[in-house]
Design brief:
Number of strands: 29
Distance between the termini: 6 Å
Helix content: under 10%
Structural class: mainly beta
Strand content: over 45%
Number of helices: 0
Shape: globular
């Protein structure tokens, strides 16, 4: 089953909360219904029977508990520590929210949920979208190190974790106008970083040194890249291209990244996608649809059936 993060009216969307999707025998998805009424649950993260949601317009982190069927019950909420939280993750007993507009990281105690620390950032870049710090995602490099992507300043910030609090210990600067957005741990151990603005994937090793960068095939001027995934065997990595509305395909050969090509994403504004075995599901924000593909051995996704209608989807979470 899948839960759908979405935009509601407070972010210009048509959803009313978190929806649930189920799998059909051919691998495509069906709309099951509304799991919980919520205000723009922009990003979702699972922890046991809990689902965390970043309420982007409200500036909150909300927690839901799974019940019978697909229903979700809200059990907690707290200030995210900044404006427009667009990513939330739980690391042990700590929850971290990345806030896009002001670039803050909010650090929350998980139980009970409460804001405990705010890390502020500054900086900017040459792209018009880089008018200031814009935190977009966090990622656990190991048990004691959390990375954060600052799309506005082209920095990957490094934080040590101790007793549930973060201390910034350094930063890795990516090329100007990269716009780091998303992280992915590849089976090889490399960490891939998606450049939303530069339309690139950058590979970092365990010392956070840049070992490879590749331009996304199919990227066109004005595109904004979104979401990273890897094939089950690790031979391919995929990124969405909002604007040209494509899924870009990159081959991984050791530490070498090679552009392969792209396919039509089969919708408007592919905000997020995920790979589930030999299946790929793509959430299209502007066409209010989810498209499902099968991934054959050659790594090129093939559409299974016509996309289904899902109101303003921007994130897919498998549970």
């Amino acid at each position: 089953m899948f839960y759908v993060g979405a935009y509601t009216a407070d972010m210009g969307g048509t959803a009313v909360g978190i929806a649930a999707l189920g799998s059909l025998p051919d691998g495509s998805l069906e709309y099951l219904g509304l799991a919980a009424t919520a205000d723009s649950p922009a990003y979702l993260a699972a922890h046991g029977d809990l689902v965390y949601a970043a309420a982007e317009a409200a500036g909150r982190i909300e927690v839901y508990r799974r019940g019978d069927g697909f229903a979700l019950e809200r059990v907690a909420a707290a200030d995210a520590g900044g404006t427009a939280p667009c990513h939330v993750a739980r690391y042990g007993d700590t929850v971290v929210a990345a806030c896009y507009v002001d670039g803050n990281l909010g650090v929350l105690d998980a139980e009970p949920l409460a804001l405990a620390q705010v890390l502020q950032s500054d900086g900017s870049g040459p792209h018009p979208a880089q008018d200031g710090s814009h935190a977009h995602a966090t990622f656990a490099l190991d048990a004691s190190t959390i990375l954060s992507a600052d799309l506005g300043s082209d920095d990957i910030h490094v934080h040590a974790v101790d007793a549930g609090r973060l201390t910034r210990t350094g930063s890795v600067r990516l090329p100007a106008a990269t716009g780091p957005r998303d992280f992915l741990r590849h089976p090889s151990g490399l960490v891939f970083v998606l450049g939303e603005l530069g339309l690139t994937i950058t590979a970092l090793n365990d010392r956070l040194a840049i070992v490879a960068t590749v331009a996304l095939a199919g990227g066109e001027p004005g595109d904004h890249a979104a979401a990273l995934s890897t094939s089950a065997d690790g031979r391919f990595v995929y990124a969405g291209l909002r604007g040209s509305n494509r899924i870009s395909i990159v081959a991984v050969e050791g530490a070498t990244l090679r552009p392969v090509g792209f396919v039509d994403a089969e919708g408007d504004w592919p905000r997020h996608h995920l790979v589930d075995g030999d299946l790929m599901h793509v959430a299209h924000e502007r066409s209010s649809s989810v498209a499902s593909f099968r991934i054959p051995q050659n790594g090129i996704p093939e559409l299974i059936s016509a996309p289904i209608r899902v109101p303003s989807p921007i994130f897919l979470l498998k549970v």
